[in-house]
Predict the 3D structure of the following.
Amino acid sequence: MILDKTAGDQNKSLYDVNKEVYTLLRYGVPVREEAGQNKQNVELIDWKHPLKNQFAIAEEVTVKGEHDKRPDIVLYVNGIALGVLELKRSTISVS
């Protein structure tokens, strides 16, 4: 939820949004289990033990929004989409 909110913040520049998303992915997300308790840091990716993460690849995932998108390949780490690949034939112009 915090990651979605941060990534979708339209009030900040792309640079600032990317910087905040990177910080959450790199250092974790502060969460509070119950009201009145101190926040604990939850790491979204285990950087110290990379093989403990879950990796997945999906093809042609539909992303709903104002304009639906359908990238050819999406790369996931622990269920978080971290990479998107759009594949084109060399004979077709990108424009």
About this structure: Residues 7 and 21 are 6 Å apart (CA to CA). The first strand starts at residue 29 and ends at 31. The mean pLDDT is 89.
